[in-house]
Amino acid sequence: MPSVERVHAGGTGAGNRGNRGSGELSASRLRRDTPARAGLDPAELHELVREVHALTAGKRPWAAGAVVVAGRGPVIAVTHAAGWALRYASYDPDTDRGIELPTEARVPMTVDTPFDLASVTKLFTAVAAMQQIERGTLGVDARVGAYLPEFHAAAAHGVTVRQLLTHTSGLRPEIPLYDCPDHAARLARLRAEPPVGVPGTYTYSDLNLLLLQHILERITGRSLDDLIHEGITRPLGMTDTRFGPCPGAAATEDQRRPWAKADRGMLRGEVHDENAWALGGVAGHAGLFSTAPDLAVFCRALLAGGSYGSARILGPDFVELLLAPPGLGFAVDQPWFMGELAGRGAAGHCGFTGTSVVLDPATDTFLVLLATTVHPRRRRPDNRPRAAAATRLARAVRGT
Question: Tell me: the pLDDT tens digits for 81-109?
Answer without folding.
Answer: 999 999 999 999 999 999 999 999 999 99
